[in-house]
């Protein structure tokens, strides 16, 4: 182990014996009391020394036997340490790509705050290379999401979209102006490759009957989908997604996240965990119960007789939606359950007041999440009664 105090946390002394690591309350830690010798040792925890050398230097500072190990353990337990040599083979492979790692150092610093383990940040970052995300949509929102996910080291980002790039599809963080007139899927693929810090290896796809050759070592095989992001150019399909369209995802147990802009309102969520959290069908059924005219109006909006006018999609709002959706997606891929799980977030112009709406599992929906939700409520109620009885 080569311990390093996490450089992402700024350091300040509250008084002569107490140091605070971090400014923002979410990750700040106060450590003390510290004597002068121990404080001097903190400066040596920069990732360039292993424990044997640190013990020698601690002895030279007059620290007692075992003090260095105790300090390292204390810092690690507080979530303040990184290990510049750990993390396993995937982390080592990332370190051998200095150009890519330099691109990703801000992301690594951020992940080191989220994961308290000394090697947690680089393990999570390296694990992204084995993940595959599909983005359905290559407009201002979808292309922006694909670009961010690729730039954040997700190994494979597929973009599904038809037609050709229109002038209003262009955005600073998405499709460039020179792609106007080209096929959207081809332009999006180039965008994804250009944003990737590490060029992904070529993968063999199996044939139509699943009989394609696969290398014996498994290298180059297309990974399964970790997540699907539904970010259509028509914001209606994100605001009121058609359950029939995403039913194959629910049936396959594939997590999926909705994001888009409709009529000056940004929408992110829900992030659907099939069979666990509310889905598009639950959303539809819940709205129909609250609004007697909803299904009639929705049928008209989905009928295909919509106006040919270019839909409203404010550039700054679309960029904000893409960023927030990509952040929720990355948090999920890194092993967390972000606030979009079973919840949708909406922000209308001009106030941009983000508000959440819970998408509760509906008992009439075939996704099965309602029965699980009911079982969990029953378990919580039983535990509460047992606690009171005790």
Task: Write structural notes for this entry.
With 390 residues, the chain is an alpha/beta fold. Helices cover 40% and strands 14% of the residues. The strands form three sheets. It has a seven-stranded mixed beta sheet with strand order 7-6-8-9-10-11-12. A three-stranded antiparallel beta sheet has the order 2-3-4, with no helix packed on it. A two-stranded antiparallel sheet has the order 1-5. A hairpin with a 5-residue loop joins strand 2 and strand 3. Helix 4 packs across helix 6.
Question: Which residue ranges are poorly predicted, with pLDDT under 50 across at least 5 consecutive positions?
Answer: 205-219, 378-389
Number of domains: 2
How far from one another are the termini? 46 Å
How large a portion of the residues is in β-strands, by DSSP E?
A: 5-15%
The SS-based structural class is: alpha/beta
The CATH superfamily of the largest domain is identified as NAD(P)-binding Rossmann-like Domain
Fraction of residues in helix:
40-55%
Name the CATH architecture of the largest domain. 3-Layer(aba) Sandwich
Q: Largest beta sheet, briefly?
A: 7 strands, mixed
CATH domain class name of the largest domain:
Alpha Beta
User: So how many helices?
Assistant: 14
* CATH topology (level 3) name of the largest domain: Rossmann fold
- What radius of gyration results from the CA coordinates? 25 Å
Q: Which sequence of strands runs across the widest sheet?
A: 7-6-8-9-10-11-12
């Amino acid at each position: 182990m080569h311990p390093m105090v996490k450089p992402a946390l700024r350091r300040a002394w509250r008084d002569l014996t107490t140091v605070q690591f971090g400014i923002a309350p979410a990750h700040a830690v106060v450590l003390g009391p510290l004597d002068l010798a121990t404080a001097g040792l903190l400066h040596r925890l920069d990732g360039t020394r292993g424990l044997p050398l640190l013990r020698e230097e601690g002895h030279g500072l007059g620290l007692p036997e075992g003090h260095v190990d105790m300090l390292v353990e204390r810092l690690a337990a507080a979530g303040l340490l990184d290990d510049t040599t750990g993390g396993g083979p995937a982390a080592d492979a990332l370190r051998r790509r200095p150009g890519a790692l330099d691109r990703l150092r801000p992301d690594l610093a951020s992940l080191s705050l989220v994961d308290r383990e000394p090697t947690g940040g680089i393990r999570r970052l390296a694990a992204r290379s084995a993940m595959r995300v599909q983005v359905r949509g290559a407009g201002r929102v979808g292309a922006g999401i694909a670009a961010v996910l690729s730039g954040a080291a997700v190994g494979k980002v597929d973009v599904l979209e038809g037609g050709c790039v229109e002038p209003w599809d262009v955005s600073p963080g998405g499709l460039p102006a020179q792609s106007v007139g080209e096929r959207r899927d081809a332009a999006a693929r180039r965008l994804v490759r250009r944003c990737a810090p590490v060029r992904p290896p070529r993968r063999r796809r199996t044939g139509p009957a699943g009989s394609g050759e696969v290398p014996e070592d498994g290298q180059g095989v297309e990974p399964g989908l970790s997540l699907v992001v539904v970010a259509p150019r028509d914001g209606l399909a994100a605001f009121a997604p058609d359950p029939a369209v995403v039913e194959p995802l629910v049936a396959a147990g594939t997590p999926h996240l909705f994001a888009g802009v409709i009529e000056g309102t940004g929408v992110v969520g829900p992030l659907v965990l099939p069979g666990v959290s509310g889905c598009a069908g639950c959303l539809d059924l819940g709205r129909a119960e609250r609004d007697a005219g909803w299904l009639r109006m929705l049928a008209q909006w989905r009928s295909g007789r919509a106006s040919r006018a270019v839909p409203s999609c404010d550039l700054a709002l679309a960029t904000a939606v893409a960023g927030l959706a990509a952040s929720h997606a990355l948090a999920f891929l890194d092993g967390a359950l972000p606030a979009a799980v079973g919840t949708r977030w909406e922000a209308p112009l001009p106030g941009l007041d983000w508000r959440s709406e819970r998408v509760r599992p509906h008992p009439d929906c075939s996704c099965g999440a309602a029965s699980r939700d009911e079982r969990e409520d029953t378990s919580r109620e039983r535990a509460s009664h047992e606690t009171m009885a005790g």
